Amino acid sequence: MIMRPHPKEGTQVQQTPHALWPPRFKAAIFDFDGTISDTATIWHEVDRAFLSSRGLPYTDEYPRMLSSLGFDAGARYTIETFGLRESVAEVCEEWKRMGRALFESHATLRPGVQLYVHALTERGVRVALATVNDRDVLKSLRHVDVEALFEVCVYGGEVARPKDHPDIYLETARRLGVEPTDCIVFEDIATGLHSASSVGMLTCGVRSFDPVQRVDEVRSAADLWLDDWRDIGPGAAPGPRA
């Protein structure tokens, strides 16, 4: 079982890289959008285009709500909120089509992510992806093979409930063959952090640099906090980053 740090102490942010390297956990579970990638802004573009084409208003609260729901639950929320006549399948297909096109041309992993994942693997730590994104959307990435980077990938459509429940984290731990209490979860949303914590997982909030991220909320929900992936692992460099 992972020994948790004292929560939310004033020096926690500076101590976090030391808690993450060398690793003191058996498995690391990573979210995708916003956490290890800069793709949150891509989904904002999709959201704006989707709503604009129907003459509907866009607010920051809309992507915040969708970030933990995934495609099916997000489509149901959208249909109910705006009174759309389209089906869940039709809304999801439109989102995925736009997402695939933008991911192919714009999506990248954040600097330092691949180095850290590879370093964990070399230390014998199991690594997995747990995302409400879609397998076909992530396969459209041009410069990285996500499924080759991680031992296990679990997508939102493979579990019963979105990230306001711990289903996806528990299923990921099950596929890795580890106990939930031996896992750390990296997330950029408070909803996911609360769910992972509720089943005994260590949590690390990650700054996404997404303007709609509620940083204080995410930090308060997490055991640890990370500003930049390049601050941890064998490639870490001292000093502030631009």
Automatic annotation (TrEMBL):
SUPFAM superfamilies: HAD-like (SSF56784). It comes from the Bacteria. One of its GO terms (molecular function) is phosphatase activity. Transmembrane segments: none annotated. InterPro entries: HAD-like_sf (IPR036412), HAD-SF_hydro_IA (IPR006439), HAD_2 (IPR041492), HAD_sf (IPR023214), PGP-like_dom2 (IPR023198). It holds the Pfam family HAD_2. Keywords: Hydrolase. NCBIfam families: HAD-SF-IA-v3. This is HAD-superfamily hydrolase, subfamily IA, variant 3. It comes from Olsenella uli (strain ATCC 49627 / DSM 7084 / CCUG 31166 / CIP 109912 / JCM 12494 / LMG 11480 / NCIMB 702895 / VPI D76D-27C) (Lactobacillus uli).
